[in-house]
Amino acid sequence: MGRKDVVTREYLSSDEVFADVVNLALYSGKCVVQASNLREADSVEELAITMEEDDSKGKRGKNGQGTTQRKQSHIVQKYRDIVREVVIDGVEGYLARIIVGVEEQSETHYAMPVRNMLYDALNYSGQVNGIGEKNRKNGLLSTSAEFLSGIRKEDKLVPVVTIVVTFQPEAWDGPMSVHEMLDWRGIPEQVQELTPNYKMLLIQPESYEEEKVSNPQSTFGVIMGLLKYASSMEDFQKYVDEHEEVLSNMPVRAAAVLNEFCTLDLTEQELEKDEVIDMCQAVREMKEVSRREGRMEGERKGAIRVYYQELQYSAEQIAQKVGMDVKAVEKVIETLDN
Questions:
Q1: What is the count of structural domains for the chain?
Q2: Which of 189, 214, 258, 308 lies most in the core, judged by the most C-beta atoms within 10 Å?
Q3: Per the domain annotation, does 249 fall within a domain?
Q4: Range of the structural domain that residue 201 is part of
Q5: In this predicted model, what pLDDT tens digit does every residue of 125-162 receive, in sequence order?
Q6: Single pTM value for the model
Q7: Is 44 inside a domain boundary?
């Protein structure tokens, strides 16, 4: 697990941050779920698959028959990043329960819809097994159909939702559903529509809309906004100015996330010094350095163009003139030729 994964999962493990993620993904940013509505849940999803295996290894019994089969259990285990049970007052006066898993991705995962589907299916399977054990223990099964599955007609499962969170500023370019991953060539539309689909819930900086968020409980939205505008100097500076109060009192875990994705170069000592950190100056310095580097890079490319196209210098001669590696100069020349 890389450094980015470690700091982002630590950050998302905060109940306040987790609640903001749930509200953004499930309630369009409305503050429905509070940190106090969250309960700890097991992050391990597992399924025991029982199979019959021949223990004879080719041997025959006295009557010429194969020896008896034995049952062998195989355990399928998957570990989620973070899981919470959400318990809130639901519609029509009911108490609503939802199991929510949050998966952090520091870069695009092109099989994420299938991965999420597996996580959720394992959880549902675990719920079925748990209800079945309880029903058998308490003698609640009465029909052959109930004994077959272990659950009764009136038994219900807790809904499971998986939310993918990425802090990468670049847009997620992977599939958003299982259907997008399937090869539909030659398959009629009627069959496509009947094929079960599994859609992915994604939160990313590129599509973050701050105006939809009400009463945030954490710095999650501010981090999303900063990363969204990271590529535009003007928009970024404006966003920093508008959120100076939050940025000047950043919790350490939030500061660590910004440090990784904005390459602020804060040391471990700086991050561990206090519980909150003033990130305004560090963020502004980072953008100023980027601006200067971009200007210098532009000036160098302009000089290479003049030396190459107008003065007909070789790559080696240009490298000496502009103080760059020959291979780097050759790459710039390739763009000029194209």
A1: 1
A2: 258
A3: no
A4: 3-50+69-230
A5: 999 999 999 999 999 999 999 999 999 999 999 999 99
A6: 0.77
A7: yes
